[in-house]
Each structure stands twice: as structure tokens, then as C-alpha cells.
Amino acid sequence: MFKKLFIIGGVAVATASVFFSMLPAAIANDSPASSITEKTVFTQLNVNLLKEKIKEKTGLVVETVEKTPVMGIASLITDQGLFYASFDGNYLIQGKVFSLEPKITDLAEVSLAKVRLEGVEKFKDDMIVFKAKDEKYIVSAFTDISCGYCRKMHKQMTEYNDLGITFRYLAFPRGGVKDQAGNYSQGFKDLRSVWCSDDPKKAMTDAKDSREIAYRVCDKPIEEQLVFGRKVGVNGTPALILSNGMLAPGYQEPAKLLQLLQKL
Q: Exposure winner among 23, 60, 167, 188, fewest CB in 10 A?
């Protein structure tokens, strides 16, 4: 998984295996003739310079930068998701980085879990909530009106609620905010009408049952929730953010979701 190459913004980007495999040799070889030497492995992180270089070279807008346990490597939360970069900005890495000590840990998930929970907190007043009477667990679900498995999950809402699982919906128009003609997409307009309804819960249920709902326009963060979802690894619906920030993509039947939540 660490050996693929990818192209972004016309720039070839080396993957983690290539860069990491070069570090020991670079540090061991202090010959001036070496193409990579110890002094090219930056030990100081200049956040602003790194942000500027990544934007200049790739067009990515870097929102946050944090050091990782790997020497000379920083994690970047961008408008297009999570990446890693060398402190000097000469290497950009897309993919998973695992810590093997003291146990195998996906560093990407650790970083993204934190961002997911921050985003959920930000949007907590702009979600459509189906609350369990005897609430034991809360999941935040990215949804789209026309998504088949989203509809299936919604039809089972009573079952989820009876198990103590509260659902909080976030909007994720899969077709984007605008279509190829530059007009608002039907998915975006449908979700906006639901969120702007006088009774959003009823509108959500009606829309997912293919019943007509009133067209509404108001100032709700539909686009912002979509951007947030893309940033934290959502590429389809349904997708559930759990209480620890873990992302559970795809349809989760009630009993299996309960089992997953009980293990957290």
C-alpha cells in the first residue's frame, strides 16, 4: 500500500515507502556528493513556509499542520483531505502511515478522528436529530436524499432508536453543490429544502420516502457540511462518525451498529 505513485496538480509525488527508505541512507552517508544528506532532513518545522510551498506546488489549501512521530514528517489537513509532507515541503505523501510501537496504530485515523469530532461540535446546532428515548449512543451520519442505503437506514430509524442509538444527520450532496452547467444540483436543492423546512425531521422522512416536499431556500450550511465530509475522508453515503471520531462508511444494520458502538 506504500508503493503507489500518484499525480496531483501535475506534480509527481513520491510515496511513503520511497521517502522513508531514503532517510537511513541519507543520514548514514554524509558525503557531499550524496543527493540527499542529513542536513536535507529538516528537523525544524516552519508551518507557514510549509503551507505556502504546498499551496504553490499543488494548489492544496493546508488548514492545519502537526508533527508526527516520524522524524521530519508532518501531517497536513487540507481542503482535499489528509496528506503528509517532509518538513521542507519537497515530498508530499498520500496514504496511510502506521506506528508499530507500542502497538499498530493508523496515524491518519488518529489525526482525522480529532478533526471529525471538532467538525461535529461545530455543526451540532445544524444537524437534523432523530433522538433515542433511552439514549446510549450518538452517531453523526452523512446522508443524501437519493442514496438507496441512506433510505434503507432511515426506514429503520425506529429500530436504531429502540437500541438507544441517536442519529444526527449531516448533509452530503454526492453530486456536489453545482452541476456542470453551474446551477445548483438537484441533490443540493433537495437537502437545502429539507434543512430549511419548518419541520426538518418530517421533511427528511418524506423526501426519503419519495414524497414531494416544499422547495425552500435559507441560510443553512449544506455546502460547509459537504466540504467537511470530504476533508475527513467521506466519499459516499451513508457514512457515520462515531463518538470516538472513527468513521464507519456504508450501511450498518441496527444490530451490527450496536455491536460496533459497544466495542468503543
A: 23
Q: To 5 degrees, how large is the angle CA 28–CA 33–CA 34? A: 40
Asked if residue 112 lies in contact with residue 40, where contact means CB atoms within 8 angstroms, the answer is: no
196 is catalytic: no
The full set of domain ranges for the chain reads: 6-106, 126-262
Cell triple for residue 259? 455491536
Tens digit of each residue's pLDDT (9 = 90 or more) over 190-203 = 999 999 999 999 99
Per annotation, catalytic residue among 116, 147, 151, 192: 147
Long-range contacts, stretch 22-29, CB < 8 angstroms, 24+ apart: 23/71, 23/72
Give 9-42 pLDDT, tens digit per residue: 333 344 444 444 444 444 444 444 444 444 455 6
Answer yes or no: 150 catalytic.
Answer: yes
What is the pTM for the complete model shown? 0.80
Q: Given this structure, which CATH class describes domain 6-106?
A: alpha beta
